[in-house]
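Quick one: structure for this chain?
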Amino acid sequence: MVPTHARAKLGLADLQFIVSSLCRAGERETTLFKLLGDAEIREAMLEHPRLLECVLEARQPAAISPFLYFYLLVRQALKDFAIDDRDVAEYVANLLAEFGKSGRAQRVDEHATKEYRYLVDMMSDLLTANSEQTFHLRSHLGDYALFLTGLFPAHVYHRAKYHPPAPDFSYYESVGSNSFRLAAQHAQAERLRLNEVLELLGRHFKRVRLALNHAVENYMHLDRNANSWERVRRRVDQFIAEQRGETFEQSDWID
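Got it. Here's what it folds into:
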């Protein structure tokens, strides 16, 4: 399960980035910092187009967390595909930030020790899982299917076409959609206030997947290969380094 409610838990560096990006000439940053303490005002600030511009142009002198980086990109990409839902954008951004950690995409939560290499292995474990395990497995099935098809469509296409019987998009979309829908019906989803988010992801899985393809192509500008996720992580590192005035060597990139 990916972390939840991250918009309400932005760190100091993220808040500084927001203030620096939106502060106009003659305004005091301390005033904006105080305004960020109000949840509604903070939400409104996160909607300001200037934040996305600063991320894409990398011109503001502030560090930024992977979550906020992905949130700004995903929020816009989803709106481009007629999904105007902040909570869904937050969930997907958390998913990308969390799965960027080494080995995390293969584990159902950050504390799990068992790693899954294939969706079918998770499906097999569902047969003997208890209620809580079932929720985590179903959520992770949806998360992984969205992560793979959203970030690496060329990889999915290539394997399905040239390495049968590797699954194609329709398989991942079916598994992802059904998994999110079933997870949304679980009592744990209600307790975490994720039932509506998971239900929407299940209902519009393909559209969300296409929105991520759009974000990768137009905002992240990644090479479409199996190692591209390392490039996502490196792009975040590059952005942060540039904001701190540090040098980011081309040799730091992983091919």
